[in-house]
Write a structure and sequence with these properties.
single chain; 7 helices; two-stranded antiparallel sheet; two-stranded antiparallel ribbon; mainly alpha
Length: 226
């Protein structure tokens, strides 16, 4: 089952605190933005045009960052019925095979997310269908903007970096989309960490349990104790 993550080094503690605070901040921002939009809509018969789009982006950040964090703390639910009926060596081999598949999948997601995001940031995607063989020279798409979120003045320097010096009316897609390569790289890193721990025998699997109710019950009990 999953448990509270305990960092072994000061850097690990810093990174863990940063991840938890960032996830909490994103969730808080989503709540505040939607609450403000409801107040403006029903109290002043107006609307925050950017609120829905901002919430969608924040939710994407929450999910993508949460995926790698859940791997780190062993909170992903899975089916371990077969692991419980085979011998420990066989269960260990099956777990290593499963995490190897997760590593390959996360690697492909990392490559794909970089290839998708890079043109929006004025960078080149990788060449090669499955594995990077270099970088492909493509036309920059740094001029693409989101639909509703107005570009703040203090971020206009992005225009000099990825938009040939032109100003933005709305924020460039490179800003919200950057979470894709970042989160997928983190996911790949967390699966590699899990594979090392499995190999060393520090953990027996990378899932919480086959019973969702048990994970929910444990989380609730821990919240009460805290």
């Amino acid at each position: 089952m999953s448990g509270r993550f305990e960092a072994k080094t000061p850097m690990g503690e810093f990174v863990n605190t940063l991840e938890e605070n960032l996830i909490a901040l994103i969730l808080g921002l989503m709540t505040v933005i939607q609450f403000a939009n409801v107040v403006v809509r029903y109290g002043f018969s107006s609307n925050l045009l950017w609120a829905l789009e901002a919430t969608v982006f924040l939710f994407a950040w929450l999910v993508l960052l949460g995926a790698s964090y859940a791997v780190k703390v062993g909170a992903h639910l899975g089916v371990d019925a077969l692991l419980n009926v085979v011998s420990p060596p066989v269960a260990r081999a099956m777990s290593l095979t499963a995490v190897a598949g997760c590593i390959i999948y996360a690697f492909l997601l990392t490559k794909g997310s970089w290839d998708y995001w890079a043109p929006f940031a004025g960078l080149n995607p990788t060449s090669g269908k499955w594995f990077p063989t270099g970088f492909a020279d493509v036309r920059s798409q740094g001029w693409y903007e989101v639909n509703d979120i107005v570009m703040p003045e203090w971020l206009q320097w992005f225009g000099n970096v990825i938009n040939d010096g032109d100003r933005y009316e709305k924020i460039p897609r490179a800003i919200p989309y950057v979470i894709m390569p970042i989160s997928m790289s983190l996911l790949l890193f967390r699966f590699l960490q899990a594979a090392v721990k499995l190999w060393r025998g520090e953990i027996s699997n990378v899932i919480a349990s086959h019973e969702a109710e048990e994970a929910v019950e444990e989380a609730s009990s821990r919240a009460v104790r805290d």
